[in-house]
Specification:
Rossmann fold
Length: 287
């Protein structure tokens, strides 16, 4: 019969020979998804944004998409894009989404370049709070109609404090001089544009050209996808074609998506197709 003492000694020796395995590194806490509504970025009640931050975001990897609503610079609201927000969350789940409002032109109040300046202020606010939001500096701008105009103007003209990586333009006016001189239809009279700008091209050509995205297209402009309806009564397809040609001449990556029978906005199968093409474009060109 073996001695109990000998048995204990053998166990001790075996235990001593066992390698010390370090404890596994603690798993860092997950960063929770977060929504912030009506966040002010300037001292006017209209200058606010809704912010949708994805889970597990980080300052090195989380891309950003900034939405700018339309409405002819005189109407509209960030809530018009609620369906876009839901779609983008599903299609681009790793992106942080910022959906902004800006001051609207009303008579002699808030005429151009108020809207351009507000977009700049919103961009600066997001940029200088990027560490708080845990977002990277890989940004995309998306806008429709007047919002498309403002998205392009920011991307092509105002490259500080950040140069965006891509633009998604739904039928945004690109050349305001041409828009005044060659309106798409009776539903877009030159008088409407001049009331928003506070001048005509003959009285203030500089303001028109400085407010036109096409003026600032260059070889360093970001990749741009343009989506345009063929029977748009407010923004002529010629605006988008001129922009496409200017981008092409400058050597800028671009895609022109034309829906011959669509008007100033669309739904259904063509909208699904639009987001299919947007998702593919951003996947290919935003890194």
């Amino acid at each position: 019969m073996r001695s109990p003492l000998l048995f204990i000694l053998v166990l001790s020796l075996l235990a001593g020979c066992k390698k010390n395995t370090p404890d596994p590194s603690p798993v860092p806490p997950l960063v929770a998804e977060e929504t912030k509504l009506d966040v002010m970025y300037f001292n006017d009640p209209s200058t606010n944004m809704n912010i949708y931050l994805p889970a597990n975001r980080s300052s090195s990897t989380t891309k950003v998409i900034i939405l700018i609503h339309g409405g002819g610079w005189t109407s509209g609201d960030k809530t018009d894009y609620n369906s876009f927000v839901d779609t983008l969350k599903k299609r681009l789940p790793g992106y942080a989404i910022f959906n902004i409002n800006y001051r609207l032109a009303a008579g002699s109040n808030n005429q151009f370049p108020t809207q351009e300046n507000d977009v700049k202020l919103a961009i600066e606010y997001i940029y200088y709070h990027r560490d708080e939001f845990k977002i990277s500096t890989t940004w995309v701008l998306l806008g429709a109609s007047a919002g498309g105009h403002l998205a392009m103007l920011q991307a092509y003209k105002n490259v500080l404090p950040i140069q965006v990586k891509a633009v998604v333009d739904f039928f945004g006016p690109a050349d305001l001089v041409d828009m005044y001189n060659n309106p798409a239809s009776i539903f877009a009279p030159p008088s409407l544009l001049s009331s928003i700008i506070g001048a005509t091209p003959s009285t203030n050509l500089s303001l028109y050209t400085q407010s036109s995205p096409i003026t600032f297209v260059s070889a360093t402009s970001p990749p741009t996808i343009i989506l345009q309806g063929g029977v748009d009564p407010l923004v002529s397809p010629n605006q988008s074609i001129a922009l496409k040609n200017k981008l092409q001449t400058a050597g800028v990556i671009n895609q022109y998506v034309f829906y011959p029978t669509e008007s100033h906005g669309w739904t259904g199968a063509n909208m699904v197709d639009s987001f299919d093409k947007i998702t593919a474009f951003l996947t290919a060109n935003v890194h």
